[in-house]
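Translate structure to sequence.
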């Protein structure tokens, strides 16, 4: 089925700023609270949020098989469960309805008043009920840098890294949308030179520049997903900040890996950009040597050219751009990650989220964490107000943005922005 929504020549009757992440060719999906305290599934064009629940009630999805309340829910899970055919039909229909040449909704002011909101009039929610969250470790540059810092620099990558997409299971209860502040975590750490741990606030809170993909119902328990089919089960992508407490992590991660250093908060952008919308930005990923085992082998373009950037904004100062990276640097593709995840028969459900792992590039300005950017705190970053940052300070806001762009169109994710607060104090 063709993706008519991606037509680069299409214009909307809604005004779209030139550098907007959300032209009519994007049509992401999210959930928002209206100024009348109604929660609805929606999409976005320019600076307008569109109530898909209202569109459905007004019969604008006639001819597409949808349950009566598909978009009148507080999550996207049911819509995602309907599969790729339905996603594409709905995106195509929305693109048609908001096309500048289509008068059906454009010239119906009464319906427009019900359906279209200024983006400032809505409050974005978590777009899906995330049942399970897996975080991968798929940037070769990041894994190499961490290996150099904490292990033998000559053997930075562990023996399994070039053979499997390494990952761990995270905590879905701590995943929050952009705009929700995060408290500095408490935990056990082992001070340098000591043999007995102490309990207190983490001193080394870090961001991790990541993306994540959201899945549909992919398999039954025991069934694996072939790598050449895996993308059919990926609904779309969000930006992700995988907050990390490096000092807690250093003490706890042996022998079972990340635990409390990672699960205190994970922030995501609220709009899910579909894989269909990203189709024009496919590129080849890095060459994989040695060749992966047959079940992970891919041909063609399975990476995406997504520009990524991270800024830090102190409470009373201008923000500073600290990293510019790109999703195309990822060594293991999303399809390989999903295939490996199900290779043992693990069940994948609608709304499950898979983090990419920190996305670092090959240059000093493309590193995806403060751990790397300051090399463990040895090379502090000078902020506009004259202060330095080795890691993230209380009341700093971390802002992650991402977008794809070529001569015809720009498709973006908006941002995931989160402020770090001091430790939570019970009243």
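Result:
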């Amino acid at each position: 089925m063709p993706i008519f929504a991606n037509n680069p020549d299409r214009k909307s009757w809604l005004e779209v700023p030139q550098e907007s992440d959300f032209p009519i060719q994007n049509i992401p999906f999210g959930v928002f609270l209206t100024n009348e305290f109604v929660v609805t599934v929606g999409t976005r064009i320019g600076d307008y949020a569109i109530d898909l629940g209202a569109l459905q009630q007004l019969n604008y999805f006639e001819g597409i098989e949808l349950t009566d309340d598909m978009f009148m829910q507080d999550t996207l899970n049911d819509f995602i469960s309907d599969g790729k055919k339905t996603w594409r039909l709905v995106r195509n229909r929305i693109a048609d309805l908001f096309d500048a040449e289509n008068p059906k909704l454009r010239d119906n002011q009464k319906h427009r008043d019900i359906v279209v909101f200024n983006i400032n009039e809505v409050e974005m929610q978590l777009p899906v009920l995330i049942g399970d969250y897996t975080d991968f470790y798929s940037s070769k540059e990041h894994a190499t840098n961490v290996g150099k810092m904490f292990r033998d620099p000559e053997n930075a990558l562990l023996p399994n890294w070039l053979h499997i997409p390494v990952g761990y299971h995270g905590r879905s209860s701590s995943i929050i949308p952009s705009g929700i502040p995060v408290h500095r975590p408490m935990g056990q750490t082992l001070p340098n030179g000591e043999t007995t741990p102490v309990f207190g606030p983490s001193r080394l809170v870090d961001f991790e520049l990541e993306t994540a993909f959201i899945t549909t119902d992919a398999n039954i328990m025991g069934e694996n997903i072939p790598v050449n089919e895996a993308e059919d089960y990926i609904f779309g992508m969000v930006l992700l900040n995988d907050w990390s407490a490096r000092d807690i992590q250093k003490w706890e991660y042996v022998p079972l890996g990340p635990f409390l250093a990672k699960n205190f908060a994970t922030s995501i952008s609220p709009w899910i950009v579909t894989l269909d919308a990203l189709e024009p930005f496919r590129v080849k990923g890095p060459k994989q040597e040695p060749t992966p085992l047959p079940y992970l082998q891919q041909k063609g373009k399975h990476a995406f050219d997504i520009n990524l950037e991270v800024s830090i904004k102190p409470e009373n100062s201008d923000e500073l751009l600290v990293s510019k990276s790109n999703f195309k640097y990822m060594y293991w593709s999303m399809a390989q990650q999903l295939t490996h995840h199900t290779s043992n028969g693990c069940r994948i459900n609608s709304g499950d989220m898979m983090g990419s792992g920190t996305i670092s590039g090959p240059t000093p300005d493309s590193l995806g964490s403060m751990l790397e950017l300051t090399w463990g705190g040895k090379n502090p970053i000078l902020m506009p107000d004259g202060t330095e940052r080795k890691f993230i300070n209380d009341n700093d806001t971390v802002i992650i943005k991402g977008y794809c762009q070529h001569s015809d169109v720009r498709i973006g994710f908006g941002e995931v922005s989160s402020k770090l607060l001091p430790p939570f104090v019970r009243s």
